[in-house]
Design brief:
The complex is a heterodimer. By secondary structure, chain A is an all-alpha fold. Chain A contains nine helices and no strands. Chain A starts with 18 loop residues before the first helix and ends with a helix. In chain B, the strands form three sheets. A six-stranded mixed beta sheet of chain B has the order 6-7-8-3-9-10, sandwiched between helices. A four-stranded antiparallel beta sheet of chain B has the order 2-1-4-5. In chain B, strands 12-13-11-14 form a four-stranded antiparallel beta sheet, with helices on one face. In chain B, strand 4 and strand 5 form a beta hairpin. In chain B, helix 4 packs across helix 5. Chain B folds into two domains: 213 residues, 3-Layer(aba) Sandwich (Rossmann fold); 70 residues, Alpha-Beta Plaits (2-Layer Sandwich).
Chain lengths: 271, 314
């Protein structure tokens, strides 16, 4: 072509690193249906938990202890690492895996010639860019309140704070990638969230209590995540014993299977 | 640098089946560089499926294709870097503004695409609404935003699939003006449409497709004229006139129109001689003739003739 309109010709190449990842983050960050529930399930959950315990303590300090201290930090860690934080990760992952499809933008992205693998991979840091700051903020809030509201109770050590922080970020990232893969595979945000919440809450709890399953329960996500926690759950149930190395292998398999399925579907889907 | 070929799109034996259903059946297509190419066919003829294959949205069942001289899908990324397309209705993230949608789309293009955002918004007349959420846009505005997104890559080839669907008459006029400006810039336009009038007004080359097959292909003048001619007859009694000239061996088709007849001539017939003969026949039959107007066969007539004939064959 020889007579291209100068109005649409760019004068110079801008330097915009991680453009695709930033685009994914923009789509999620601007969606109130994604960030509000995610903020509620992370920062909100911590705020509610510590506020409730502190109010009980203030209303009857003889019966209820202070909201801070190691025990309550342990509860906060469980809530963040294995319940609310996982659901938040599932919400963000499901949205990241399906938003281009549900808005019919996927075919426009594919028609740019950009590799489908690249389109899928950009969603990983893009979604984590929204999820992890909220998880980190929730964790920071929990850590601060467990010290500030400790009263006379013992508080976690610096080493435990660091390990616990890495644990909540890691567990949220694992569930995010699983949700992203499942969302990309299924193509429906509602279906992905329903499947994951059903699995993370009732189904998994039922399966882990079916003792006849024996070692097969090692494959459950919650057991593998629990095993890498620096603190045991506040109310331990029938825990299946598993080495930390085995739990890491189980988590890697979850990520590989669902991430792989999501990537495969993104590469092969008719856009 | 890839050597510039004469054609921006070339396909050979391109086929796409969905189970037993053949949507595209051995299409050999050549789109000349710098042309405004109409891909014309009735609904369900396989137009969108062909475009989807060209854009790598779906895989062909058989055949080969080259886009801007590069084999697809082998060099898909490089081939499509200078192609802009709207397939069916353009999709957007409704919770983002027009500008943010373009920003996200530019991220999948070359880095310079980000610097074109303001200029393409201005070009499609959306600068004033660029920071509003797309969810608040009318369909015409979304269509224009889709065009802006196409232009982000400064495309050599623009592929538009039924682009005026849902546009009001004003929007259609604006769209035509925009398209003409692209063609004037030397870009190649591929316009897929079932609207014959649309193709006739914009395009200089055309392929007519029916049931997955290209049934005619060439420049607009070749296809709209061919060897055939037509004569429009204005008379006082069209029904009687129809009977009077029915046996004329120089005619391939006669149809009654408002206040007269329209006749199609056989390829070997001379337009002037047949016009004089028809006049004699009609006057001889006592019919008042007040107009005899030789004309070229319109693309529409040609299109209907071809598809009707094929329909009759099946």
């Amino acid at each position: 072509m020889t007579t291209v309109d100068s109005a649409v010709r760019a004068p110079q190449q801008p330097r915009l690193p991680f453009r695709m990842e930033r685009a994914e983050l923009l789509k999620l960050r601007k969606s109130r249906g994604v960030w509000i529930p995610t903020a509620f399930l992370t920062v909100g959950a911590m705020a509610i938990m510590f506020t409730a315990i502190e109010l009980f303590h203030l209303s009857n300090s003889a019966k209820y202890g202070p909201a801070g201290g190691t025990d309550n930090f342990q509860r906060a860690l469980f809530l963040m690492g294995q319940v609310a934080g996982m659901i938040a990760a599932a919400l963000v992952g499901a949205a990241a895996g399906t938003q281009d499809l549900s808005s019919n933008v996927f075919r426009d992205l594919v028609s740019t010639g950009r590799s489908r693998t690249r389109l899928f991979l950009a969603r990983i840091p893009g979604g984590l860019g929204l999820l992890l700051p909220l998880v980190a903020a929730a964790y920071a809030l929990a850590a601060i309140l467990s010290v500030v509201l400790a009263g006379g109770l013992p508080t976690p050590s610096v080493s435990l704070f660091i390990k616990a922080g890495l644990y909540v970020l890691f567990s949220a990232s694992i569930v995010y990638v699983i949700a992203l893969g499942l969302g990309s595979l299924v193509g429906s945000r509602a279906a992905t969230i329903s499947i994951l919440i059903a699995y993370l809450l009732p189904v998994q709890a039922i399966l882990r209590n079916i003792t006849v399953l024996g070692r097969a329960r090692d494959g459950l996500l919650s057991i593998a995540v629990e095993r890498i926690s620096p603190l045991p759950p506040p109310d331990p149930h029938d825990v299946v014993s598993m080495s930390r190395a085995t739990s890491l292998i189980v988590l890697a398999l979850w990520v590989a299977i669902f991430g792989g399925l999501g990537l495969w579907r993104t590469r092969t889907r008719d856009a | 640098m890839n050597k510039q070929s004469e054609y921006v799109i070339e396909t050979e034996g391109l086929k796409k089946s969905f189970g037993d259903q053949v949507a595209v059946d051995g299409v050999d297509l050549r789109v000349p560089r710098g042309s405004a190419f109409g891909y014309l066919g009735p609904n369900g003829a396989g137009k969108t499926t062909l475009i989807r294959m060209l854009l790598g949205l779906t895989q062909p069942s058989a055949g080969t294709m080259r886009v801007l001289g590069r084999p697809m899908p082998k060099e898909r990324s490089r081939a499509l870097a200078r192609v802009g397309a709207i397939v069916e209705e353009p999709g957007f993230h409704k919770h983002l503004s027009g500008r943010e949608n373009l920003w996200a789309a530019a991220a999948a293009r070359e880095p310079a695409a980000h610097l074109r955002i303001d200029s393409v918004l201005e070009r499609v007349g959306l600068t004033g609404r660029a920071d509003d959420r797309v969810g608040t846009y009318s369909q015409g505005m979304r269509q224009r935003l889709g065009i802006a997104r196409c232009l982000l890559s400064d495309p050599e080839v623009l592929i538009l699939d039924e682009p005026t669907n849902g546009l009001d008459p004003g929007g259609i006029q604006e769209f035509r003006a925009l398209v003409r400006s692209w063609i004037a810039e030397g870009r190649t336009l591929i316009l897929s449409s079932h609207l014959l009038d649309e193709v006739e007004k914009i395009c200089d080359h055309v392929a007519i497709v029916d049931r997955g097959r290209i049934v005619a292909q060439g420049s607009m003048s070749e296809l709209s004229a061919g060897d055939d001619g037509a004569i429009t007859i204005g008379c006082d009694d069209p029904s009687k006139a129809l009977g009077a000239i029915d046996a004329n061996g120089s005619l391939s088709d006669v149809e009654e129109i408002a206040n007269g007849l329209r006749v199609l001539l056989r390829p070997e017939a001379s337009l002037e001689k047949v016009a004089a003969e028809l006049n004699r026949q009609l006057v001889g039959a006592g019919i008042s003739v007040y107009r005899l107007e030789p004309s070229h066969v319109s693309l529409e007539h040609r299109f209907l003739e071809i598809t009707r004939r094929l329909g009759g064959d099946s």
